Amino acid sequence: MPSLQLPIGITLLLSTLCSVVRSDSPEYRTIQSLASKYCYECHSEDAGTRNLTSLVWNFDDPQAFTQWENVFDKVASHQMPPEEVSMPAIARQDFLNILGSTLKQRDREKVDRYGRGTIRRLTRSEFQQNLRDLLQLPHLDIKDFLPVDRESHNTNRVSETLDISRVQLAAYLEATDAALRQAAASELVPHKPTKIKFEAINMFQSAGTFGGTEAMFFAKDSKRVPLSGAQLNEVRAAKPLDTDYELAIFRSATWPYYGYPQGFVASQEGFYKVRFSARAVLQTPEFELIPAKASIPMTFRARKRSGPDVSGDVRATGGTMDVQPETGVFETTIFLKSNETFEYSLLGLPQPRAINPPNAPLYYDFPPMPEGGHPGIAYQWLELEGPILSAQWPPDSHAILFGELPLKAREKGSLPFQLASDDPKLDAQILIYRFIERAQRRPLSKAEIQPFLDLTIDELTAGNTLAEALITGYSAFLCSGHFIYTTDPTTLKDRSSQDYQHALAQQLSHFLSNSRPTQALTRLAQSKSLAKADVLTQQVDLLINADTLDQFLIPFTHHWLDLKDVWRDESDDRLYPEYRLNDYLIQSLQDEAFTTFKLMVRENLPITTLVDADFVLVNDVLSKHYGMEPQSGSHLRKVELAPDSPYGGLLTTGAIMKITANGTATSPILRGAWVMEHLLGTPPPPPPADIPAAEPDIRGATSLKEQLARHAADQVCSKCHAMFDPLGFALENFDILGKWRSRYRSLDTGMEVAGIDRAGHDYKYYQGLEIDSQAELPSGKQLDGIHDLKTHLKANARQLAYALATQLVVYSTGTPIRFSDRIEIDRILDQCADSGYRTRDIFHAVIQSRLFTGQSRD
Amino acid sequence: MTDTPQTFHTNRRRFLQASGISIALPWLESQAIASSPAKTKRMLLISNNLGVLDRYFFPEDSGANYKASKYLEPLQIHRSQFTVFSGLSHPYVEGGHSTENCFLTAAKHPTGSQFRNTISLDQYAAESLGRQTRFPTLNLGINIDRANRSLSWTRDGVLLPAIDSPSALFRLLFTNGTEAERQAVIQKLKRQGSILDTINSATNSLNTRLSKNDRRRLEQYFTSIRELEKRLLDSGQWESRPKPVVDEPPPTDITDSARFIEKFDQMLTMARLALETDSTRIVSLMVDAFATGVYHYEGDTKSMTGYHNLSHHGQRDEYLRQLETTDLRQMALLSKQISTMKETRIQDESVLDQTMLLFGSNMGNANTHTNTNLPILLAGGGFKHGQHLAFDRERNSPLSNLYVSMLQNMGIATDQFGSSTGRLNGLNF
C-alpha cells in the first residue's frame, strides 16, 4: 500500500497519557531534543521551509495543534525526515509516542469538554426534505431558492463549511413563505380534474416531424398512411373518429422535436394519470411496421408547448417504461406545471441531423437504416386524467397549517380563501402550538414558543387575516435557529436527558434519510431508549430498509463518489461518435454505479465490492456497452460474470471511468489519484502549482506512458506519482465511458475507422497505439492490468473500509476526523474485520461509535 | 451557482464600506458621491435572438489594426471605444433558437431532458453588488414573447419577465407611485422585519443553551439577521424617496410590432435614461426578432417575410439584402447609443466610460441554426478597446470568460461564471 496511508496502527501503540503539558514539560524537552537532531537543520528560521523551532507547545491554539498533527503524520508515514537524515526506528517511535499521546490526550480533553463538533446548518436538500415531510408535500420544490452548499471533505455537510449569510437568510424567508402557501388550499372548492382520451390520430400535434417520414408517421394495418396537414385535419374532424390509426415514432426527443398530443395544456400544476396502449416496432424500407426484436424504453418529457425550440425547463417524468413487441397497456403518473404539456421521449433512438444545401432552406435528414429496420414505438391511444387531488378537500398539507377550521370565501388577504373563526386569537394560539409541536425536533418550552405566538397575534391585531398571520408565524419558526440548525449529540453532557436523545434521533435521521426523525424515532427519543445499543441497531436497519434510503444515498454518492459529475464532460464526437448525445446510456451508467453501492448497503456485501465483484448490474443499453450478452429492458439486473471479465465492482463501472476521464481522453493520473482519495481515503497532496497538466496527445503520436515517464524519473515527482500513476495505468483499458479497449483512438494515426453515427453524421477516427496497462508499484510489485489491480486493492480491504468509515463519520456528524478519533476508527474497523468488512456492518459500527453517539461502549 | 454565502458576505461588507452612505441620501446627493473611490460601473446587455449575418460582421484580420467589416463601418467613429470578438460561444449550449434564454446564463443543453436554466449575468452581478440603486436590475424587451423568452433568469432558473412598454418603464423610473402601491411594499418589508425580530429573540434563547463553539457558529446567523434588517430598511427608504426628474417627455408606445427598429431605438433611449439617472446599474435588453413578423426594414418597405423566415435565407439574394439592411440599421442604432453615452457625463466621467455595452446574439448563424462563433461586441466600461480579439473558430473559447472579465470590471471578486475557464485573454482594464 502507498506509504501515505494514515498511521492507524501507530495510534494503537500510544499508551501513557501525560497529565501536564507545559512548554517546560519533560515531553516537550524530549520532542525538542529529537527535533533538533532530526528536524531543525532544515526546519528553522531562514531555511525556506516551515520553521518548527518557533512552533509553540500549546495545544489550545488550534493552529499550533494542526501543525503538530501535521508533523506527526509526516513522521509517522516516513515522509519526514528524508532518507538522508536516517532517523533510527527507536527515535521515531519515541517521537511518535510522545507527540501522539500528547495530541490525543489534549484533543480528547476538548472533545470531552465541548463535544466533537458544533451545531450544523441543514443543507439545502435537507431543508427541503424537512419541509416536504413536515408539510406533507412530497414534491415540494423550494431547494433552488437557496444557494448551493459548498463542498469540502467530499461532502457538503461539514458544519464549518455550512455558513449562513444574509442572502441565505433572505432566501429562507422567501422559500418558507412559498412552501407554506403551497401547503394551503389552492382554491375554496376543489378544481375538477380533466379526463381526455386521445386516439392515435390526435396523439401528435402535426402530420410530420423533423427527420421526415422515417422519423414519424401515421399507420393503419401496419402500413404508413401518408397524410398532409389538411388531410390530417379531415381525419380528425370526421365523425365517428377513425380509431384504427397508429402513431409510429422512431426518433429521440432531442432538438428539434415536439411530440406532444394535439391541443392539451395542463390547466393546473399537479400529477396526472396517463394510460396508453403501445407496441415496439421496426420500420421497413417500405414504411411498414413489423414487430420489434426487443423492447424499447420510453419516458415522458414535461415542457411548455413552445414548438421545437424549448423555453423554460424540460423534465423527464413518469419513469422509464419498456414497450414490448406485443401491444400492451401502460399506466404511469406524470407531474406537470400549469401551462405545460408532455411529449413522448423514446430512449436511445437516433436523431436527425441538419443539412444545409446551398441556395435552399435547411432540412433534417434521418440516419441510415440499421439492419432489420428502424426501431420505434407505435401508439394506439392515450388517456389522461388529472390533476389528481387528495382524497379530501382541503388537502392534508392544508390541515397541517390550519387544522379543521372551515374555509370561507375571500374578502381580503392574498390567499384564495379565508378561515372561518369565532375567536381568531384563540385559534391562532392553538394552531401555533400545534404546528410548532409538529415542526420542532426537540421539545420546546412555552417560553421558547412565545415569540412566534406574539408575532402571529401582532399580525392579527394589525389587521391581517388569520391564515396570513399564521403563515407569518410559521415562516418565522421555519427560519429560526430551532429549525435550520441541528445539534451534535456529543456536545450534550447529560446523556440521560431528552435533549440528548432528540439530538441523537435528529443526527440519525438526517444521516440515513436526509430529513427529520419519523414519529416512531421521536417516540423512542421521548422514552429515552434510543441510545441503547440494540434499539439503535434496530432503528438503523429500519432506516436502511426504508424507501427513504435513496434520500441518503443520492447526496452521499454524489459527493463521495462524485456521481454528480457523471454529466460533467461531453464525449468528444470526433473520437467517440457512438456516444453522441446518448443521454440514455449516461443515465444508465449513473444508475448502475448508484445501485451497486445501494446493493452493497442493503445486502451487506463485502467492502471489496468497491473494486471487484462476480456480478455486474446491466440493462439493455449497458449490456451492449460492455460487450456482454444482450439484455432486454431498461431495468438493471444482476448478471454473473465470467472469471476473466474485467468488469464487476464499483471501480470499473462506466460512471466512475467517465468521472475520472474528461470526455476526450483518459488520464492515469486522475484515475489513480481518484482511487487514492475516494476508495482508499488517502488523498494525495495537490499537484504543484508550477507544473503544467499532462495533455494526452489525441493526434496519436506519443503515448501517455512516454510522457509520464518523467514522473518516475524525477525524484520530486515520483514521491507522489509513483503511488497513484500505476493504479491509473492498470485502468487504461477502459475508455472514457468505461468500455473495454485495446487501442487508443486517435485523430490522425493508425487504422482508419469510418462510418455514419446514430445522428447521421459521418465520422472517421483511427485505431492508434496499443494500450499498455502494465505498471509497477513503489514496492516493486508488478501490476499487469486490471486483474492485478483488483487483486492488489482487494488485499487492502481494511483500507477500503477505512475510507468508507471515515466518510460516513464526516457525512453523518458534519465534523472531519479529529486526532483523537483515530483510535475509535481503528476500533470500528476491528469490529468489522471478522466478517470481512461488510458494508452494512460498517454503518452499524460507525453509528454505535463514540464519534456518533458521544458514548464510549467499553 | 458556484458562489458561496461567504463571498456574498464579504461583498456586502465591502459594498457597505465603499458606498453605503449613498443609500441613506436623496438621489441628487447620492449622485454627487457616485464617483467615490470605488468607481461606479454599469452594464447594458443586448441580444438580438436571430443574430446578424456573420459574413458582414466579423473582420477578416485581427488585432488593433483590423480592417473594419461592413457592419462595423457605422461604428468606426468609436473605433477606440469598443472591441469586436470572434471565436466565442457557450460550450454545449446548442439547440438552435432554444439557446436564446441562455445567452446570459450559459446553461448547457437547453433542450435536454434535465434542463433547468441557471442564473443570468445581470442577476448574478446584482446579487453580488447588493442594492445600490432603486432597481437592482432592469430587464427589457422588444416585441418579446414575455412568457417564454428573457435574458434574465433567477438563481433557480425562473424566467424574469421583460418590460416591453417604454411608457410603463418611464412611469416605473420617473413617476412616483400611488400611496396604496407604496403601502403594499412597505407592508411586506415590515412583515419580513417582524419575522427577523422574532427569529432574533427566539434564536437568542436557543443560544443560551449552547456550548462556546456552537455560539461562535451561531454568531453568523445573528450577523445575517442584522445585515438583512439593514437591507430591508434600505428598501423601505427607496419606497419613500422621490424618484429622479428628467427633461425628456414620457414616451408613447409604438404598438405596431413591424416598427421594431424604431421600438429598439426608443428602448435604447430608456435604457440610457435609467443608467444616467442611476436608477439602476444593470440593464438587459432582448430584441425578440424571432417573434417579429413581417417588419419595416427600410422606411415603409416591408420585409418579404417574417424575421425568422428571413433569417433562414438559404443564400437567396433578396433575403440577404433585406437582412443586411436590417443589421446595418441596428448597428447604426448602437453607434448612436455609444455617441449619446459618450456625451452624457456623470460628474467627471462619461456614461460610456462607466457602462459596459454588450451587443451579441445566441445565434452564430441563424440560417444554419448554429450556436457557435457568436457575434459579440463590447463598448465602453473603461476597458482598453480598439481591437478585434480573435479566438479559435474551430474550438471556440467560452463566452463566459468575457462575462468574468465584465464582472471583475464591475468590482465583483469572482473568477468563475457559467462555463468560464477564467478571464478573457487579451481584454484588459
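The longest strand of chain A covers residues 270-283.
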